[in-house]
Amino acid sequence: MRKINITMLLAMASVPAFAQGPMAGSIQVFNIVKTDVLRSADKITDELWNFKPTPEVRTFGELFGHIADGQYEFCGPAKEGKAPASNVEKNAKDRAATIAKLKEAIAYCDATWTTLTPANAFEAPAGSRMSRIATMDFNTAHTFEHYGNLVTYMRLKGIVPPSSEPAKK
């Protein structure tokens, strides 16, 4: 299995997208991870929702909640200058409700991407040390990090992660 780091993945996605605009590659990479996360949520049953490999780590539900909270934590400053309140992880006991909140959070980030322009993407919002595009890319990296956790959990339970499924013909 080949290891690809996030920086290399972002760079590879940016090359063909460059002609489409400065953010197209970053958006494409975000679309990859959000799709893998959402497809993972569909694979986890109610019976597995509270599974965690060891007592010290998050459950499946808490991981999905944490990913949802991250969408607001990172995309909020890029869109509104601050993160909206979100506490999905702490309330991740119910699968259906958590998945609904995860979808809302990802939609929030999708909407944030539409607010970025060549003129504002490289500006840092007031009070931030990072540009809008850097914050959005950090969100993508954070989401990939926790998708990696989900992959490990799924493998432990004999579930094939979405990114490892055979390509559809």
Structural notes for this entry:
It contains five helices and no strands. The model is unreliable at 14-19 (pLDDT under 50). It has helices at 6-17, 24-43, 60-80, 95-115, 132-156. 59% of the residues lie in helices and 0% in strands. It has one domain: dinb family like domain (Four Helix Bundle (Hemerythrin (Met), subunit A)).
State the gist of this model:
The chain has 169 residues and is an all-alpha fold. Helices cover 59% and strands 0% of the residues. It has helices at residues 6-17, 24-43, 60-80, 95-115, 132-156.
Task: Name a few traits of the molecule.
mainly alpha, Four Helix Bundle (Hemerythrin (Met), subunit A), 169 residues
Blueprint (SSEs and pairs):
Blueprint: H1 6-17, H2 24-43, H3 60-80, H4 95-115, H5 132-156
Helix pairs in contact: 1-2, 2-4, 2-5, 3-4, 3-5
What name goes with the CATH superfamily? dinb family like domain
Please tell me what the overall shape is.
globular
Helix content: 55-70%
Biggest β-sheet, characterized? none
Return the CATH class: Mainly Alpha
Q: Give the class from helix and strand content and strand pairing.
A: mainly alpha
Name the assembly state.
single chain
What is the CATH architecture annotation? Up-down Bundle
Count the beta strands: 0
Count up the helices: 5
Span between termini: 22 Å
